[in-house]
Design brief:
165 residues, mainly alpha
Length: 165
């Protein structure tokens, strides 16, 4: 097996996606807590909310908009910086692999078979490495997009729960 295929970077995408899953779970738990606490505050306020209740309701809308804007910006920035270049590289390598495969299939001498077989193996290894990087880049995009939403949900859960812990 090639040294490139045993490299730790091939396991990196898995760990990145595990991190995304854990952060998403944590964010969902905090969001549920915040929704419950804010719903309780609104129910207590009833039809005559206090100034503090109104401020909290207004803050809720502003925070959602700010977190969504920050998340979208982070996703766009990460897409621009990595994803497009990696997709372009993956397509070039796929075409290179296709050329190597056709060359191998049309080889007529043992020397050509050996040369084209090596070229196909190199192309396949490069493609695998790029696909691993592409998966890592996708996970980083998800991480960066989730970060502002996770941060706001976590901060709100702590703030609204108060000094009960």
């Amino acid at each position: 097996m090639s040294a490139a295929l045993t490299s730790p970077r091939f396991f990196n995408p898995f760990m990145l996606w595990v991190d995304v899953a854990l952060k998403t779970q944590e964010m969902l738990m905090h969001s549920g807590s915040v929704i419950q606490l804010r719903t309780g505050l609104m129910a207590k306020a009833g039809l005559v909310p206090s100034d503090a209740d109104l401020a909290e309701m207004q803050l809720m809308g502003h925070e959602k908009l700010a977190a969504a804007t920050e998340s979208g910006s982070a996703i766009a920035n990460q897409l621009h910086s990595t994803q497009f270049a990696l997709v372009n590289r993956a397509m070039r390598q796929w075409l290179s692999g296709a050329v190597a495969l056709v060359s191998l299939a049309t080889s007529t001498t043992p020397a050509q078979i050996a040369t084209h077989g090596r070229a196909l193996a190199v192309a396949a290894t490069r493609s695998a490495a790029t696909l691993s990087q592409l998966s890592s880049a996708g996970a980083r995009i998800a991480q960066r997009g989730l970060k502002p939403i996770h941060a706001k949900a976590s901060a709100n859960a702590l703030r609204l729960a108060g000094p009960q812990a």
